[in-house]
Amino acid sequence: MVRVRSPRYGRKLDDFTVGAVYAHPWDVTVDEGMLALFAASFQDALPTYASRVAARSVGLRDRPVSPLLLLNLGISFSVHDVSEQAIAHLAYTDVRFPAACYPGDTLRASSLVIGKKPVSTGDKGVVHVRTQVVNQDGLLVCSFERKALVPPGRVAERPEDAPHAVAQPDAPPGRLPKELDGPLPPPARQGGFACAWDDFEVGDVITHEVGRTIGDSEHMQLATLLRNSHPLHVDEQYSRSSSFAKTRVVHGGLVLSWVLALSSRDTAGCGVWDLGLDEGAHPSGVLAGDTLFAASKVIAREEAKSGAGSVTFRLVGVKNTPPRALLDQGADLFTPELGKAEGRVKEKVVEITRTLLLRRRS
Amino acid sequence: MVRVRSPRYGRKLDDFTVGAVYAHPWDVTVDEGMLALFAASFQDALPTYASRVAARSVGLRDRPVSPLLLLNLGISFSVHDVSEQAIAHLAYTDVRFPAACYPGDTLRASSLVIGKKPVSTGDKGVVHVRTQVVNQDGLLVCSFERKALVPPGRVAERPEDAPHAVAQPDAPPGRLPKELDGPLPPPARQGGFACAWDDFEVGDVITHEVGRTIGDSEHMQLATLLRNSHPLHVDEQYSRSSSFAKTRVVHGGLVLSWVLALSSRDTAGCGVWDLGLDEGAHPSGVLAGDTLFAASKVIAREEAKSGAGSVTFRLVGVKNTPPRALLDQGADLFTPELGKAEGRVKEKVVEITRTLLLRRRS
Amino acid sequence: MVRVRSPRYGRKLDDFTVGAVYAHPWDVTVDEGMLALFAASFQDALPTYASRVAARSVGLRDRPVSPLLLLNLGISFSVHDVSEQAIAHLAYTDVRFPAACYPGDTLRASSLVIGKKPVSTGDKGVVHVRTQVVNQDGLLVCSFERKALVPPGRVAERPEDAPHAVAQPDAPPGRLPKELDGPLPPPARQGGFACAWDDFEVGDVITHEVGRTIGDSEHMQLATLLRNSHPLHVDEQYSRSSSFAKTRVVHGGLVLSWVLALSSRDTAGCGVWDLGLDEGAHPSGVLAGDTLFAASKVIAREEAKSGAGSVTFRLVGVKNTPPRALLDQGADLFTPELGKAEGRVKEKVVEITRTLLLRRRS
Question: Which end of chain C is less crowded, N or C, counting CB atoms within 10 A of the terminal residue's CB?
Fold first, then answer.
């Protein structure tokens, strides 16, 4: 008799064991091609990530892999074990990049199940994981927590796992690669973007004027390249019946990357490193053809070291209407959507807190 | 008097000489960018091709270029001399990858005309070629035969060829790079995909659940990158009048790559090398916007060496309907379409036999 | 009180100072990924730019970055300071590539304001700049002049510039990398494309038969990768109100690249280097979905050195109708559109003069 199998991956609520660590099976060498495909969608003005000269001028041995690419790889690698059945991605917290990853490094990721609970309606649950991305030497290059909404029960057709004999350190270490620990040497060049640490004051609001329309092919290429295996992003047949939008939806990590890139000429042009992301959420979904825009609010500014300081921004991404127009209409752009009693901004697609190490002029 | 030329390439039936070898003019260094663009469309779970760590753990000096990319380059390089006038690509046979190609290698290809004959209607013909892809040292990295349907007569505007003083070895050598000849060392990592050699039994059918919708830009980018010069894939003006579909059609080598990638988490996650493809055909064409799915049937399993064995799959690719649904409707999925008296599966876009070297658990 | 800023970049007519040099802030390492993305849109037959073997055979140390990619980077890097507010790109002149750029080089660009003047209607002006692209050692790898049509007045929300303490040499040096100065060694291979220096005669017209349809994602990816920051290419919301086409328009440097690539099998298959482009203009715009075609006319042929000679082509790009059909209808294809009293070719999207160093058979 013919044995017909239809393997499915990801987990439903009862498939998760609190305390378990899943070693995600993907094993990928990051190369210059990935960097270019990332740069072809996300026009990031932060010099360290784009220029070997700029990177070496701050003490790194080469141009590092963009932290946002690492975050996207971490999320995507984890889909196979964590969220391939998920209904929604709910939150990012405590995202950090404690060491530089370079092209040529080979990456893996694992996820620790921190918690899980059914939602009050009882027909689904929230799972809370911490994902860590390490290179071929076991060096931690990205760590973050996220929450996802998953269906109840179990995935019937899930093949038995290969052994997951991995452990995660209890708390990930600092927020800055060790190469960037000392005082910051002066910039390697004349000219450059205008927005140094000195240019920001707490309370400043910046509406970033240029938007980016999302291409149908490009978001699928990125999801595929990242090894994101959720059919919602690339399988139109699945999406017609199973997507809230009745069509393919852009992977949230890409939406976040677009919004950070759109803000970058105004906020990160004198940037040196991403000190972390926190309190991130996706209030609504994005489709191919949507145009994304960004706005930033300065919520903290601190001296960090000789030649540089940190600035913390609250970043908001919206679709199809420039944020300046929304502010003119009185939109409450920077209050988190979750828990808003009124004034929900239906155009909002992402909100997150980002801390950057920026060069100082003074 | 003005001399107006309108050069055209490829060959019609009378342009082919049996026994001739055409040295295709393309001369291309394969780089990490090509690997990434390939990985951005084809999410392949086979670790050797994606991870330098995994590749070195089996004895290769670096992550090799995906065999499927080599096959695609070979087909595409040959279009200029062989199939730029072709009406259809009919068959692939005896595809093998006897040596590893690495990023940085520079590739050329040549095609030997094995045979040609008019079809019975007399208004077209079938040409049968063997194409070989070699690196800068003349090392054979890919060999295959294919058949194409071409118009009768000659291409009037074809410029005279540069000399083709190349020879092909009579029969291509083995199916495995010499670095992989010895016993297979244990895997380099904990965890990984579940489907080892031990998990397959002859007769097993696997329907791969996730599909992939094809982007308009991405399939044109790949055809262009591969140096496929047939206007059917990228020239909408040509295609409106000359394509069977009245629009651009996705290059068949890409369709094959999508279908193999869609099957890969369930069949190739413990894969080490592609031992060959055979008896491949494209029963119908694929357009941008179509969603591809795959199904596999295990047709042979053999012990090959210490730590690994070979499994031979019959793979089928279909469009816009998941294979599980087709099987539920009683579709005869795994019988070749050519020569079927009845029960033709109109959704089928590719069928091929693939042999993989897979790790064993036992 | 909240300070809301909406920074805008580029310059309007009164923002330009004749004699000023703007050091563009982008600082980008060119990598194999950029080369592959470029090759995935522009199928260029010129061997030097695609093959390490071919490049080394003429004395270069590696496969160089395509000159057309350098020109595109130069134009795009300058948008932030020069043309982000521009209404139209009017002309390219004196484009040259005096040194080879290799993958791994880090590029910057600067623009010297050569002149500016209001147009007669008084509601806009023309700015004329010379842009230079240099590598990490200050070596000039691309120089060109261009003219753009800009609005009158000033950009109110433009942040104050970082200091631009850069100087440009008065006149860029030669047209050939020093590695290519000596006699040309024979080709590294048997076979290759047919069109050597010997095959062209002044007055020859060549209609290139295969067209290329432009993908929506791919042209946005390229504009983003190049760091072109004009919203016209990627921001559909902006374009609906501010584009002449009421939708996104393809960056002209890409249109030029497509047209040169479409001509390349017939003109550049025996090419060694681009000796320069001149008298270039874009008579009309191109949108995603348009199909581009090319035609060439030989306007000069000279002996240049042992083994090679130069050929100068007048190249024309048209959209959605093959040039052979336009010629059959009596179109005056090779007369520049600007200043034509009658017989304007409305399908024409680019025209430019290109000089190539080509191998000789004799």
Answer: N
Query: What is the CATH code for C1-30+65-158?
Result: 3.10.129.10
Q: Which residue of B has its CA nearest to A159?
A: B194
The helix (run of H) or strand (run of E) holding residue C223 is helix C216-225
Entry pTM:
0.98
Nearest to A194 among C22, C162, C215 (CB): C162
Instruction: Choose among B3, B6, B224: nearest Cβ to C40.
Output: B224
Residue type, C284: S
Q: Please judge whether A106 and B195 are an interchain contact, meaning their C-beta atoms are less than 8 angstroms apart.
A: no
For chain B, state the CA radius of gyration.
Answer: 20
Domain ranges of chain C: 1-30+65-158, 192-362
CATH label, B192-362, candidates 3.30.420.150, 3.40.50.720, 3.90.215.10, 3.10.129.10:
3.10.129.10
Using alpha carbons, select from B277, B276, B237, B261 the residue that is nearest to residue B317. B261
Q: Which residue out of A41, A43, A207, A292 would a mutagenesis test of the C interface target, given it has the greatest number of C Cβ atoms within 10 Å?
A: A43
Q: Which amino acid is at C305?
A: K
Residue A108 one-letter amino acid: R
Residues of B in contact with C50 (CB under 8 A): 26-29
DSSP type of residue C45:
-
Model pLDDT for residues A221-231, shown as the tens digit of each residue: 999 999 999 99
**Rounded to an integer, what distance in angstroms lies between the CA atom of residue A38 and that of residue A225?**
10
Asked if C195's CB is within 8 angstroms of B27's CB, the reply is no
C281: distance to nearest CA of chain B, Å?
24
* CA B322 from centre of chain: 22
CB contact under 8 A, B235 and C216: no
- CA-based nearest residue in chain A for residue C138: A189
Beta strands B205-213; B125-134: pairing state: unpaired
Span A209-268, pLDDT tens digits: 999 999 999 999 999 999 999 999 999 999 999 999 999 999 999 999 999 999 999 999
How far is residue B48's CA from residue B358's CA, in Å, rounded to a whole number? 11
CB atoms near residue B163 (< 10 Å): 9
| pLDDT tens string C209-243 | 999 999 999 999 999 999 999 999 999 999 999 99
Report the SS3 class of residue C359.
strand
Residues of B in contact with C194 (CB under 8 A): 159-162
